Amino acid sequence: MLNAPCFHLAFPVTDLEATRRFYVDGLGCTPGRTSERALILNFFGHQLVAHLVYEPPPPQTGIYPRHFGMVFPTETAWAEVAARAKAQGLRFRHPPRVRFPGEPTEHRTFFLEDPSGNLLEFKHYTNPEAVFGCAELPEVGDDTDR
User: Fold this and answer.
1) Distance CA 19, CA 50 (A)
2) Which residues face 42 on adjacent strands?
3) What would you report as the CA-atom Rg of the chain, rounded to the nearest whole angstrom?
4) The predicted structure's pLDDT at residue 7
5) Is 123 in contact with 108 (CB distance < 8 Å)?
6) DSSP string of 100-117?
7) CB 71 within 8 A of CB 125
8) Of 145, 79, 91, which Cα lies nearest the Cα of 120?
9) pLDDT in tens, 86-119
């Protein structure tokens, strides 16, 4: 069923049922195979595998260094996920905002925190070239939450 490569990420969770509610009910992901120790999720066409751990990694004090998420091709798609997250009562680590306004790397972003403390970022770049380009610019991230 794959027509193009998809990204795969395995990540730790402390409660599979809470994880299912967050990703499936909250974000609208499609669940795949499930065992007593793992849950496969279709995360916007990419494969996430939530693996149950009994000792979670230490919580991050900021959004760096570890988070994952999606870059949406349209602002509308990004806004729809933000609206769904808000309507579902998901925990926003950072609410929707614009980063680097007026710069070539300007983008809309918000961060969610799942029940196990994993951070997710959802973005839309005003300038599509900034997703992989703009290598001459030194900004990667910001100092608002290190």
Assistant:
1) 8
2) 30, 47
3) 16
4) 93
5) yes
6) STTSTT-EEEEEEE-TTS
7) yes
8) 91
9) 999 999 999 999 999 999 999 999 999 999 999 9
Residues of the chain with pLDDT under 50: 146
| DSSP assignments along 86-98, one per residue | HHTT--EEEEEEE
> What pLDDT is stored for residue 71 in this prediction?
96
DSSP string across the chain = --SS---EEEEEES-HHHHHIIIIIIT-PEEEEE-SSEEEEEETTEEEEEEE-SSPPPPPSSS-S--EEEE-SSHHHHHHHHHHHHHTT--EEEEEEEESTTSTT-EEEEEEE-TTS-EEEEEEESSGGGGT--TT----S-SS--
Closest C-alpha among 70, 73, 74 to residue 112? 70
Token code pair at residue 92 = 């926003």
pLDDT for res 1: 64
pLDDT of residue 59: 84
